[in-house]
């Protein structure tokens, strides 16, 4: 047996801030909003139409959360009716690039992951 011990509490404390940030940006709705807003200023109704299955209430909550996290800027134009647009911050634009890389990785390796799952299931269901 190995004499080397790893202090898991240290690893957990280092991972905690990372996990917290990833929880904020990795949700299904957050990713959809960030991807939709990456094309430039986008209005609430455009977001609502482009993100299949999201309710108005959930969209409102997620937009506020992403704005609070410093990932979106909400701009209200003084017109009637009010025009509100959302744009990505510089930090979110950097995140968007990472999301595109992750998407590309998933496309390249999705088949291999599915094959590994099928092989695992066959080996463990016998």
Description:
The chain is built from five helices and three strands, in the order H-H-E-H-H-E-E-H. It has a single domain (8-125), classed as Winged helix-like DNA-binding domain superfamily/Winged helix DNA-binding domain (Arc Repressor Mutant, subunit A, Orthogonal Bundle). The relative contact order is 0.10. The mean pLDDT is 88. The chain has helices spanning 8-25, 28-37, 44-50, 56-68, 90-124, and strands at 42-43, 72-77, 83-88. It has a three-stranded antiparallel beta sheet with strand order 1-3-2. It comes from Actinomadura decatromicini. InterPro entries: HTH_HxlR, WH-like_DNA-bd_sf, WH_DNA-bd_sf. GO terms for molecular function: DNA binding.
The domain count comes to 1
Range of strand content: 5-15%
Work out the radius of gyration: 20 Å
How many strands?
Answer: 3
CATH fold-level label: Arc Repressor Mutant, subunit A
Order of helices and strands: HHEHHEEH
CATH superfamily: Winged helix-like DNA-binding domain superfamily/Winged helix DNA-binding domain
Largest sheet geometry: 3 strands, antiparallel
Quick one: CATH class?
A: Mainly Alpha
Shape: extended
**Distance N to C terminus:** 31 Å
The portion of residues assigned to helices is: 55-70%
Low-confidence stretches: none
Q: Average pLDDT across residues?
A: 88
Strand order of the largest sheet: 1-3-2
CATH architecture: Orthogonal Bundle
Q: Pairing-aware structural class of the strands and helices?
A: mainly alpha
Count of DSSP H/I helices: 5
């Amino acid at each position: 047996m190995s004499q080397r011990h790893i202090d898991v509490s240290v690893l957990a404390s280092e991972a905690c801030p990372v996990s917290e940030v990833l929880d904020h940006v990795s949700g299904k709705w957050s990713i959809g909003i960030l991807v939709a807003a990456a094309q430039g200023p986008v209005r609430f109704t455009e977001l609502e139409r482009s993100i299949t299955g999201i309710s108005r209430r959930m969209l409102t909550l997620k937009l506020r959360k992403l704005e609070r996290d410093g990932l979106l800027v909400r701009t209200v134009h003084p017109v009637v009716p009010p025009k509100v647009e959302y744009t990505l911050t510089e930090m979110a634009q950097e995140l968007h690039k990472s999301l595109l890389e992750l998407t590309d990785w998933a496309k390249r390796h999705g088949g291999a992951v599915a094959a590994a799952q099928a092989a695992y299931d066959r080996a463990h269901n016998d």
